[in-house]
Structures are given as structure tokens and as C-alpha cells.
Fold these 4 entries.
Entry 1:
Amino acid sequence: MKFNQPIVVLLGCLLPLAIIATLIDQRSNQSSHPTSNQQLFPAQHNPDDVQYFPAGPEFLLSKQVQAFEQYRKDRQADIQSSSSDSH
């Protein structure tokens, strides 16, 4: 059986590339499978991880609103007292 020179050269180049590709694929597959002491995802990415939020007001700006309402009442009282003083 006689081989043509280009086929031998082509096989000589492709065979090492195929072996390297197979080794790379095996390494990437090994790293994607967790061992017995590894988790598949870190804990912060686990969708079942329940977070605790303490009970509190839903509207976080309640103190600011209360202060603004008090300011508005004081301002209104100042305006009324100044208008009654001028008459």
C-alpha cells in the first residue's frame, strides 16, 4: 500500500492536534464536575439560599416625611402669625 506524500503530512499534522484537543476537552470536563467535597455553585449563587430581612417599616423614609410635615406645619403657622400681625 503506497501513501501519497500530502496525505502523510496531513495526518502527521492533524493527529497531534486531535490528541491535544482531546486532552483539553477531558480537562475541561473534569473541572466542571464537582467532587464529593465541592459544591456545584458557591453559596451566594444558590437560588434556594434564604436571606433574613428583619421586620421594619416598608417605607424607609418615614422619619424624613414626618420631619417635613412638621416643617410644613411650622412654616404655615409662621405665615399665619405674620399675616395676623400685619393686619
Entry 2:
Amino acid sequence: MNDAARQRICILGSTGSVGVSTLDVLSRHTERYEVVALTAYTRIDELFAQCVQWRPRFAAILATVDLGSIASARAYSLSASSSLSAM
């Protein structure tokens, strides 16, 4: 299936149990689905790990966080097409 035919998916609450289960299902069907956005409430480290794995175009977190304090950020580098930013 080409990229144009893939279903684009946004996971609200991707770090919660339902979100994690949904991503597990999607991981078995990567040819059919593209994760374009992930959101979380406060679990920034888990959201960051999901962003590294799934490379969504968008990621959002509700809680106020200091992006400089994310320990995981030192272990991973994001490609130029993916980025994290604070509003």
C-alpha cells in the first residue's frame, strides 16, 4: 500500500493504557497506518520515546515541562523532519 493510501492516525492519550494498546495494534499494521500525532497529559519521557519510535509530525503534552530537563533527549537524536517544541 502506498503512503497516499495509508490511514493517518492521531492518538489522544498515547501514553495511557488504551493509547499504548492502540500503538501496539498499529505496530502490526504499519503498511496500513501512519501515526501523525501523539498527545499525553504528563508522561513526557514516555511520549518522547513514542515520538522516537513513531516519528509523528506533531506531539503535544498538556502539562508544563522544561524540555531541557528531559534525560532521554540526550540519548536520542531526532531527524530534521521531526522535532519537539514548546508553545
Entry 3:
Amino acid sequence: MKPKKFHKNLNFIEVPKGVQNMTENFIKMDTNTPPTYEAALKRLEELVSRLERGDLSLEESIAAYEEGKKLASFCAQKLKEAQNRVQVLLEKEDGTLELSPFVPNK
């Protein structure tokens, strides 16, 4: 299948009509505007719900899985970018404040 240009940063495969309708409902946006994290996450949740219900054909399920995998990667990247932007103020021993990168608890 030839990739379908859904968004300039994301290529999706040509999908069966049932899944195509879901894709069209994804993010109605200008192709010059990247999808938001929230919109991508909502679409991912919709795909997971459809897959869990089990009402898709095998081909539709595979297409939904592939789209979901790309969306999950997109969301993970957006979270990583946000984490890199977060900084916290730390008080040093001399009482001055210092900006430091956010380091999550592991």
C-alpha cells in the first residue's frame, strides 16, 4: 500500500473504508499545523477502544494498529520535548537559586 499523506510530519497507509472514516474524524486541521498532543492522544484512545471492542476486520485492525503505533510514538516524542523544557528552581547551599533541568524520579 502506498503511504497516505495525512499530515506533513506523519505518513499513514491507505486504509479500508471503515478505518478511513475513523481517520477522517481524527484531527480536522490545516496540513501546515502539526497535531497537538491532546488531539493525537484522543485519536489513539479511539483506536484502542475500537481494537478492544473487536468489531474491526483483520485488515482494519492492522491499519488501526499501525496508525496507533505512529500516534503513540508522536505522543511519546511530545512528552519528551515537554520534559526537556521543564526546569525547576533549586536552592543552593549559599541561598541562591539555580535553574536546573527537570529530572523525573525513577
Entry 4:
Amino acid sequence: MSVVVSTIGPVCCAKVESPASGTSFADPVKLAAAYGIPALDIRSRSEYSAIPDFLAAPGPGLCQVHLDPAQEFEPRLKSRQLPDGTLVSPNLEDMYPFLDREEVAANLSPQQQEVEP
């Protein structure tokens, strides 16, 4: 089984990870190496050709693909950081780009009708 991790910017989750937030993430390639798992670190399009062979290899593996920091992904969950540093994610039905509260509520089942402001 192979796992593919997409990374935007110099580090995984660059928008959340910072000294100011107190949040940091391990380098996935170094973490895989620590467990003896083969890893591939793709930093440019010229290295894409290594991906098929990597995925065809037997056993576990991790492939980190660095993406352009300007790449947008939608829809997506957009977490908020609270004053105490806690990260809070919205419900799956409330993904970015956000709809107005009335439209979200109109699309929910009666059991889901409570929509956060």
C-alpha cells in the first residue's frame, strides 16, 4: 500500500504551521524513513515519471508531492484557529467557498437543521 501526501509550500500545512500558532507537523518523508518505509519526495514536474514505479512497488511506501503554493482546492474544509490555539473545522456540509447560512440550512435534513452562525 502506498500513501501519497500533497504538500503546498515549503512544509506540509504551511498556512497553519508557524511559531506564532505553536503548531508544527513532522516531515512525512523523514517520518516514513524513521519507520523504515520507502519514501519518494517529488519536488518538480520532471520527477513525476518516478511515481508509477513507486506505486507499483510491493509493500508500504509514502510519496510526498510538493504542489504550487498558489494552487487552489475547492470545495475544501477551512479550519479556524481559536484564541487558545485550538483548530476547529466546520461540518462537512459547510465547505469553502461558503454559502449563506439560509442556503446551507435549506439543504440540510430536518435532523441537521441547526447551523452554526
